[in-house]
Specification:
Largest sheet: 5 strands, mixed
Helix content: 25-40%
Structural class: alpha/beta
Radius of gyration: 21 Å
Distance between the termini: 48 Å
Length: about 200
């Protein structure tokens, strides 16, 4: 798509910005921009204000690295959650996926990625130190490894297991109802829920 054929530089700039979003090509970006252009001005301003406020006001939970509006996220600050369970996930997207199953009532720990040399992500880029501190300073009865079942996820699982293997806290992983190679965030709720319930000990193999 040749953006130089667009009748306005302002339109072209907006399309360029929308096309930076994942999964959004130039044609889709143009369709979204034209949709916004034809909306009432107050709706467009409300949309832009919501994005700006989200960017400015959202914090990272100091305990688990989840997104939050306060120092502690709504999960870590919930007195009804089981504080002895930590479910280790790659990103916030996995928390959303697991929460949708209504099968898990413990806490989380967001690694902030998974080991992937091709993407320039190594062990030092993961939130491992804070995880180790939580296990050391809190009464943790189980660490659940809930990473995607692909090569990067398995590599990260093994790395975490090796880092935590000297401790006395049991380490489990999701049951393999999830197909090998699947991204956790795209797994259906029923399969993911059963994989959580039927989790198995992780032996680093």
């Amino acid at each position: 798509m040749d953006l130089h054929q667009l009748p306005s530089r302002l339109l072209e700039n907006a399309v360029n910005e929308f096309s930076k979003l994942p999964g959004i090509g130039k044609k889709t970006a143009l369709r979204l921009v034209l949709h916004i252009l034809h909306q009432p001005k107050e709706d467009t301003l409300a949309f832009s204000h919501a994005i700006e406020k989200m960017k400015n006001d959202i914090k990272i939970c100091k305990k688990c690295h989840n997104i939050s509006e306060e120092e502690l996220c709504s999960i870590c600050s919930n007195p009804n959650r089981d504080e002895s369970l930590i479910c280790v996930v790659e990103s916030i997207k996995e928390i959303i996926a697991i929460e949708s199953t209504s099968q898990y009532k413990g806490l989380y720990h967001v690694l902030g990625g998974r080991i992937s040399p091709m993407d320039g992500i190594g062990p030092k880029e993961l939130n491992m130190e804070t995880l180790e501190n939580r296990i050391k300073n809190e009464e943790i009865s189980e660490v659940i490894l809930a990473l995607s079942t692909n090569m990067e996820g398995d590599t990260t699982n093994f790395y975490i297991y090796r880092r935590l293997a000297d401790g006395k806290v049991p380490i489990t992983t999701l049951a393999r109802g999830i197909s090998v190679g699947d991204e956790l965030e795209y797994t259906d709720e029923i399969t993911l829920g059963k994989s959580l319930i039927n989790r198995i000990p992780y032996h680093g193999k």
